[in-house]
Amino acid sequence: MKIAAVRENAFAMPLNNPAYPRPPYKFYNREFVVINYRTDPETLRAVVPEPLEVIGDTVAYEFIRMPDSTGFGDYTETGQVIPVRFTTPSGKVQEGSYVHAMYLDDNSPIAGGREIWGFPKKLATPKLSHEQETLVGTLHYGSVLCVRATMGYKHRELPLEPLAKAMAKPAFVLKVIPDVDGSPRICELVRYYLEDVTLKGAWAGPAALQLFEHAMCDVARLPVREVTSASHYIADLTLGLGEVVFDYLQHD
């Protein structure tokens, strides 16, 4: 293969049989269960990287079923998202969220998510199911139960406009890729948006959340002090590509 052909085709690994196709990535009937809870604010500040600033003392624990996504197929994802603010170089303050942890059961979005955006994805076994009048979410890392979440099914319909505004806010991830000698080659704060969002329904209900300690799946590092709210919603959307907003290798 000629050098020019390598350059032209080198968008993902392996070169001749990539783990995922080129973007964009569209998701249909994406089902979210999001449980918001209060945690220890000092611990939050310890895990969120500057220049992001933590807002309050809350965490959103998410279960997401993706039954139909272009390139990535059918899979389930779960993890923790933290409300933050970011001040741009021009002085504009943006409120959004920092993606702290993600666990999923499909290789293509693990590889693509880590390599393109820098999503903190790990292989595990999350499940989201409907059990009579209850939504049930679990996360196993290997054989060990790390998360158990339950929510009452569609107790109260939610207005879509506030949720649409929340989904329009940016999200941030810390992209880290090592060099061949083990030193950091890329260490960047990346911002991205959800695009072309079509909300199909949203509901609230009572919820409970339990996090269990695990050495390699440390969701319990952000302990549950109090569940404050829970939402269940379904949407079509496109996962927007990212942009670098801060380069840690260029700043002290």
UniProtKB/TrEMBL annotation:
Gene3D superfamilies: Acetoacetate decarboxylase-like. SUPFAM superfamilies: Acetoacetate decarboxylase-like. It comes from the Bacteria. Pfam families: ADC. This is Acetoacetate decarboxylase. It comes from Rhizobium ruizarguesonis.
